[in-house]
């Protein structure tokens, strides 16, 4: 059992520099290059999908919720430490990646994501290699069946999209869809396709705020999963939920986006009766 749990999400924009190398069109602006990259992938997929492949995503935010597992009278207790984003708004991609993989090297936490196996982690690995970073512990931690790359084990990485769909046996629902069913706030005005516009405008703070609210949605889905699996008893679940509410309330004045999430959460609960 891992003591530290990191529920995380990333935000990205197409990497214009790498795209220019791929396309062989050095004279294009960043905006023109991103459009050309989309056209490249549309052509490659015969018009089905213009979304760039994982190596061509530049990481602009990594946000997380840090929980600590502690023993309790009923078994495991989960205590929320913080909800935050790595680095600062002005941090480079390399600095964000050094922080993420540095945490793996230092503490080897359990990771929790929504579609992390399909998108977030491949992006993070490709981009780490792009910058010449190393993370030996990613590959040495655990055993044959329980490690960061083990698909069917949640010991080191639980991808909720995989777990909830029985690893593709049933439909893969979006996080927003799952959140709606569980009474959890999903998107609060900003969506993934807005990130490139915010990045071009230099509004990295707004991107980080958006990423943190996605982390909160993932966190609430994760806690419900832990309750369903029996990893958390009802009392422990109620206490970590109360701790999250208190944390959001305490942070509202300095971080209004957390207050907006809390109000939306309370409104959904009130509507459900």
Strand content: 15-25%
Tell me the name of the CATH class. Alpha Beta
CATH architecture: 2-Layer Sandwich
- Counted by DSSP, the helix tally is 11
**Proportion of helical residues:** 40-55%
Which tags fit this structure?
273 residues, Nucleotidyltransferase, domain 5, alpha/beta, five-stranded mixed β-sheet, globular
Describe this structure in words.
- The chain is α/β, with parallel strands linked by helices.
- It has one domain: 2-Layer Sandwich (Nucleotidyltransferase, domain 5).
- Helix content is 51%, strand content 16%.
- The chain contains eleven helices and five strands, in the order βααββαβααβαααααα.
- The protein has helices spanning 16-23, 30-44, 93-107, 116-130, 136-140, 160-164, 175-182, 195-200, 204-229, 234-251, 256-272; strands at residues 4-14, 57-72, 75-85, 110-113, 157-159.
- Strands 3-2-1-4-5 form a five-stranded mixed sheet, sandwiched between helices.
- α10 (234-251) packs across α11 (256-272).
- The two termini are 36 Å apart.
- 34% of the residues are buried.
